[in-house]
Amino acid sequence: MMESMPKLNPNGWDEMFSSKGVRSSYRQVMQTLQNLNQERLNHKQNQAADSFMNQGITFTVYGDDNQGIERIFPFDIIPRIITQKDWLEVETGIKQRLKALNLFLEDIYNEQQIIKEGIIPASLIASCPHYIQEVHGIKVPHNIHVHIAGIDLIRGAKGEFYVLEDNLRCPSGVSYMLENREITKRIFPKMLAANNVSMVGNYPMLFHNILISLSPRNISNPNVVLLTPGIYNSAYYEHTFLARQMGIPLVEGRDLVVNNNVVYMKTTSGLHRVDVIYRRLDDEYLDPLVFKPDSTLGVPGLISAYKQGNVALVNAVGNGVADDKAVYAYVPDMIKYYLNEEPILKNVPTYQMENLEERELVFADMGNMVIKETNQSGGYGMVMGNKATDKELKNAKIAIANNPRNFIAQPIIQLSTVPCLIDGQLKLRHVDFRPYALCGPNGVEIVPGGLTRVALTEGSLVVNSSQGGGSKDTWIVR
């Protein structure tokens, strides 16, 4: 009952349609959709929304007044399909990238060879707010700093993949990847089976195994906990979901205490030693004795216990230096330097605003640029040149001139599109893709899938849930 093909964007890549019609990987899905009448399709969309509502699958959006509004995460029932061939490129490219980023973090907190050899300017690292001097010289288990990464990818006009950013601190959204698949199983069980879709459900088990492997004590059942900032955090649903899936306690800072550089969890039967903390708390809130003295979210003495090697923190403290948007521009150089390889996945061309020549190039072409603050996330601190008013562009130029280190610029890339079911019709919307990579002693594992985020507003390129985006189930078809 569906119209066969919406109007394609002439400047971009569509995942389902080419100029010749439906791509082969989508034919069965399209057949299923065409066999359903409008009423059945709407019913399935409502069924998905009800599932999210009933399970409390939410996120929080903060307005200008800093008041949080809790919202159900919008979900589109038409899956996003990535072929096995494309997935292989993504998987090998992310593994290569994370190998280099881990080596960079190990180097930058120890010998700093990459600076001494002039590959990365010392000033860039020194001026990074997320370079944590307090953990310089630290030895982390197995020399792994990044245990979980959410690498954001986009597709250019010819279908080629670019890395948009590396999320190496507390990447979120994996619960939506898992819940999206569960809902798809409910509403399209036959279609899922018929398309030979790779499984993502073993993610909690893989992650839990890595957490256990990081224990400083060589015991069979180390104590692993998930540290949350609490119920007012925008990703609190995910914290509870992952703790439940992995069968580990969900704790807040007040539930933990440090004695003699050892972390303990308060329980009704006394203090229990904690070996590994999967923390969903930013660095600056972890320990009021080292960072923000007024933080009530962290644990006094935690960094001391961490430096002594008595507790493992996941991800490691100080990773933000590697996903700073100004440092991002140097990741291809890191890959060449540490691995002696050419990057498999490209970066989006990035202009450093500290470089006067690059800044003037950007100022002359602001309408085709996206301006980003180097340490913001969630779609905040961003100016889309093609949508901005003259006043917004003028203000952006002033802000850049006042603090050039705080900004980068990138050409606006037309993200690929995927059809979404909107008002009963197939309508093309822009998407990105965040696969989740897990790094442990045995290397990097990536579950074949990820979170596809959708810009639900027509023409928008901003996919973040905090900016009104939604998501889709992502199928890697074998």
From TrEMBL:
Residues 79-455 form the Circularly permuted ATP-grasp type domain. InterPro entries: ATP-dep_Glu-Cys_Ligase-2, CP_ATPgrasp_2, UCP005522. This is Circularly permuted ATP-grasp type 2 domain-containing protein. The lineage of its organism: Bacteria, Pseudomonadati, Bacteroidota, Flavobacteriia, Flavobacteriales.
